[in-house]
Amino acid sequence: MLHFDERTTSMDEPKAPADRTTVSVGKLRMPIDKLKMIIGSSLIVSLLLYVVGIKFVLVATCVAAGVVLLPPVAVMRSLVGRLFLSVFVLMGVFQASATIQFFAFPSTGFAASAAITTVIYLVAALLTDRTTDDVRDLVTRFASRHDVPGAVVAAIFLVPFVPFLIGNDTVARVAQIGGGQAVDSTNHFANIAQMMSGQHWVYAVGNYYPKSFHIVTAFLQDALFVPQISMSWRGAVLVYIGQYLVFGVLLAGALGYFASAVFAAVAQRYPIARPGLLLSAVGLAVGAAAGPFLLWSFVHQGFLNYYYVMATILLAFTALMTGSKERLFSTLSLYLVLTFGAAMSWPLLIPVLLATPFVLMCQRSYLDLLRAMPKRHLLGVAVLVVVQFIPIGLQLRYGGSDNGVNALGGLTTFRPLSLLLGALIVFGLAVNKNIDRDSRDKSIALVLPLLTFIALLAVMQLFLTGEVRYYVIKTAFLLEAVNIVILSCVVAVVLSQMDLGAVGRFFAAAITPAVAIFALFAVGANPLSDLRNLFRTEANQVKPDFYDADLALYARLGEAGRVDGFNTTLLHYNPLNDTYGAHMQTARWANMMQYDGGREDGLALYCQVMQYSKFGFGSVNDSEDMQREMVQGIKDCAQVSKDLGREHIILTDPASEQRIRDEFGDVATIVTHETRIENDGE
Q1: Most CB atoms within 10 A, among 9, 130, 201, 658?
Q2: Which residue segment(s) compose the domain that 554 sits in?
Q3: What's the farthest any 2 CA atoms get from each other in the chain?
Q4: What range does the record give for the signal peptide (predicted)?
Q5: pLDDT in tens, 516-551
Q6: In angstroms, how far is the first alpha carbon of the chain from the final one?
């Protein structure tokens, strides 16, 4: 039988050793022991070091403090698991600090938000009843079998990128990805650069996009020696792909821990032989299904922030799934801290994230626990619930009319069978009497609100617009992730009761769910289209004209130090219809690798955005008016570069060189695929 170990003391069950000093503030009594003194002094010292420029110590101290202070999560009892959880809590806390900074100290930098973060951790250390003995119970070992599924999913995610990281063509391979990604990819890189440069939010009415993920990523990069805005072109390219690999691994880990939680809940009343081996099979099944449909697809779509959003929500679900009724306050607090971080980047999910605990709390046993909860705990939960609405307030205050849920975007394929699978899962959980009541209620509370929300939005859009659009499709990815995990765990538990032998059960549990998911998602459009576009060369995917040659030329210019902000333009001439055209995402991506987030680069970026809207991914309006606008726009961008003291470069093919030189030679430097580039960057 599998069971959760719930021995550890938490905020809900305080111990009272005799060797403590107790400080009273009004009616609040706060015991102070050696552990709290160590945490408090470490936080203060690390903040002082941050102020003088030694920044990484504060991040490490906050993560270590989280390992000690966070409530127990049954499947994250190893040091690896608690470190993983603590990183996400730090990201959520820092977003709360950035929010306070925005309202109270809007012109300050990272030092202010770091100070606010330190204060939050100090308050948590004072209020949390934790002793050295508690820490020994919290962290039972360095790693456990519950860490394995996430490691397996992460390994599957990383496999296609291994060739990118070895050999001498790393930059060229990354350029192949960046040059064909959706525009979201460069937008996220730009937003991180802006947050690293300004070190605070700058929101304006009608020009709003949530930048919570970007500011916390910028803060961590700044503290951990990854100065994106001041790196060489090659260095920035490596940071660019590194961001996707890091956040992809984090989502993979979150999928693994959620799978461990679901597996333990489903298997509680079944005798499981070799549970560690079966958990590894679950990891393989989840990785095989989530890899092509979520993890790799997100790279092509440029969904860098959505890796974080989904990972954070899955960890929140894990905490709720494994939390005991005796620790209701600490479980709800951890859940709401995590969901706040996700909601600040994806406000659309706030109704679902609040509905999940609400559905659970409607159970009589939980209502009785809420009534018996101390008033200070109820107040704390109420405050955490209220702050969940901050993202909605920011959206209403600064969002424009074009930010509605019906907005168009790069996603056009909705997989309705994921709704059917979700409904079947809810039904199966509801009628399965072999799952204990509490685990069954929690599982339904996780799936049902999400399923209902997405179904209602899909029906609304089908009625109003005739199609399911970007935001609903993207939100449905979370339901797909939950479905993949639950299906994999249920199949594994069912197979564990069959006489197949250990090896037979392992392979059946690893393969069956992935095949079922692929069959469901393959109905309609090609489910691997994003994967084909991501690895164009390997998939023999048709590329835009001059795609490889343009990227190779950009790599040479970049490594020579001649790409400086947005000082380059890509352009080709078609003599058959006397028009100019280009796959402008290539130029946008290559220029973005030297974007510093400052005002000057912003001017050049804005000018090129106007060109990007005309060219996009190579689709060209060949009307005479549009062509004239495009020619004048490029000349205007060249003038911006000149005003900023920069060389403006137009990249083209040899056959187009003379025509482009005749048109733009007086305002820009013309280089072709055959031009020799001096390595000025050395």
Answers
A1: 130
A2: 547-672
A3: 89
A4: none
A5: 999 888 887 788 888 888 888 888 888 888 999 999
A6: 63
